């Protein structure tokens, strides 16, 4: 249960701080409005770093079903724990999204664009193209998985792992994230999207369920495929 709690708390913090920086950028009349993409990518990288530090002594701090499934696919994590981890991650993401909603309470009614409101919860494509969007989520998640797996080969000093993962998320966001908003984490997208669907938010539109499968399938497929290939390559060295 301690590990599940760690995944819940870590993913909650991840979404609270990550979606928090997006909401601060796009919702009207915040002090951060319009800060831009660099602020969002840095905010998300820091969110990941802090979330891993907070939860890392309780669990492996996957905080991401794509990571959990990738590690299980190569035998580095027990399949029996996978369902519990994914449920804890999804619930943590939902609670984090609710906290963002409460925190920015008066700003929702000041924001008339439903796309900006949805963007404070979940991702969406700059140009809707299923192949491009799925590939973008796959390759971004692949870079994340390789970074995580490579840490074991680099003899990092104690406590540096979360910083490396956070920097990887910043790099993915700056270099690859502009096409889809780089969910690279099914729980980070699906949990807040469910919350967006359920909450009564002024000026909100639909939750874009026609797109919702992409930030779930893309990261899972990219994570598992990358982990298997990378593990085979490392095994041959």
List the SSEs and their pairings.
Elements: H1 2-26, H2 37-55, H3 65-73, H4 82-103, H5 114-119, H6 130-151, H7 161-176, H8 186-198, H9 214-236
Helix pairs in contact: 1-2, 1-4, 2-7, 3-4, 3-9, 4-8, 6-7, 6-9, 8-9
Entry summary:
The chain is mainly alpha-helical. Helix content is 65%, strand content 0%. The protein contains nine helices and no strands.
What does this structure look like?
The protein is an all-alpha fold. 65% of the residues lie in helices and 0% in strands. The chain has 9 helices and no strands. α1 (2-26) packs parallel to α4, α2 packs antiparallel against α7 and α6 (130-151) runs antiparallel to α7 (161-176).
Low-confidence stretches: none
What percent of the residues sit in helical stretches (DSSP H or I)?
55-70%
Number of helices: 9
Task: Give the biggest beta sheet.
Answer: none
Strand percentage lies at: under 5%
How large is the radius of gyration? 17 Å
Instruction: Write down the secondary-structure element order.
Output: HHHHHHHHH
Number of strands: 0
- The structure class reads mainly alpha
Through-space gap between termini = 37 Å
Q: Average pLDDT across residues?
A: 96
Please tell me what the overall shape is.
globular
